[in-house]
Amino acid sequence: MAAREISIQPMEATAFAPFGDVIALKPDADKMINQNMCGRHHDLAKLAFDDGQAGISLFDAVPRQLPYALDMMERHPIGSQAFIPLHEHSFLVIVATDIDGRPGHPLAFMTAPRTGINIYKNTWHGVLTPLKSPGIFAVVDRIGKGSNLEEYWFDEEYIISVCE
Questions:
Q1: Which long-range contacts (CB under 8 A, 24 or more apart) does 100-104 make?
Q2: CA distance 113 to 164
Q3: In sequence order, which residues have a C-beta less than 8 Å from that of residue 67 and are 6 or more positions away?
Q4: Domain count, the chain
Q5: CATH number at residue 116
Q6: Fewer beta carbons under 10 A from the terminal one: N or C of the chain?
Q7: Could you give the CA distance from residue 88 to residue 82 in angstroms, rounded to a whole number?
Q8: For residue 64, which of 1, 120, 8 has the smallest C-alpha distance?
Q9: Domain interval for residue 29
Q10: For 96-121, how does the pLDDT look when each residue is reduced to its tens digit (9 = 90+)?
């Protein structure tokens, strides 16, 4: 594999923990509610918002294709961002640590079906990357004054591909 190629790995909570939370049903609900007919899987993400409030938006993203060319990453310095698919498909998540104000070497994860993610505030990540239609997601993020977006454009793109 060339230096600018990245293989996709399965989304596992421990590997993703430095970047955010995996939002998925647990094997057992935290408690049963609604006349014992609904399992509540409680408090699955660490949402954080500076100087603003939590808002729920709907995103309708055009699916991308593999191999995927990653030429830009972004981060949100004053609010986390949760993506909850409104479909049953997996989607691609790309993240990176911060190195002196820019993204380090990216990592690529594939979520399990019906699994969302929460990206911690100030964490470098790729754009929303569904691989199948529909690309509809509920997004919980910061709504407020001021800019909560930084972008970094790479001089040379990374190629994200399926692990062989």
A1: 102/152, 103/73, 103/152
A2: 20
A3: 159, 160, 161
A4: 1
A5: 2.60.120.480
A6: C
A7: 17
A8: 8
A9: 5-162
A10: 999 999 999 999 999 999 999 999 99
